[in-house]
Design goal:
Blueprint lengths: L1 E9 L7 E7 L2 E13 L4 E7 L12 E7 L4 E6 L2
Antiparallel strand pairs: 1-2, 1-6, 2-3, 3-4, 4-5, 5-6
Length: 81
């Protein structure tokens, strides 16, 4: 599944260098660590591990992919199974 999401990220010399947290479906999730990063023609992508999700209802996977679509200035989120 892929959804729109609000992402808080570190931005040094360019926007979206490193996601730190995101809000999705009314909940805020902190990024524990970046597992993988890559660059697509649309923008940067990140596979991240979420911190402290064991008590969330409904539970979601610990891994999600965040991709920043530069032309649209939006982020997408895909839950990893």
């Amino acid at each position: 599944m892929s959804d729109s999401v609000q992402v808080e990220c570190y931005s040094g010399y360019t926007y979206a260098q490193e996601p730190r947290a995101f809000e999705w479906r009314g909940r805020r999730y902190e990024v524990k660590r970046i597992v993988k990063r890559w660059r697509t023609p649309e923008g940067p992508g990140f596979r991240v591990e979420i911190a402290g999700i064991s008590d969330l209802q409904p539970p979601i996977s610990k891994l999600v992919e965040l991709i920043y679509l530069e032309a649209e200035d939006t982020w997408t989120l895909t839950v990893q199974s």
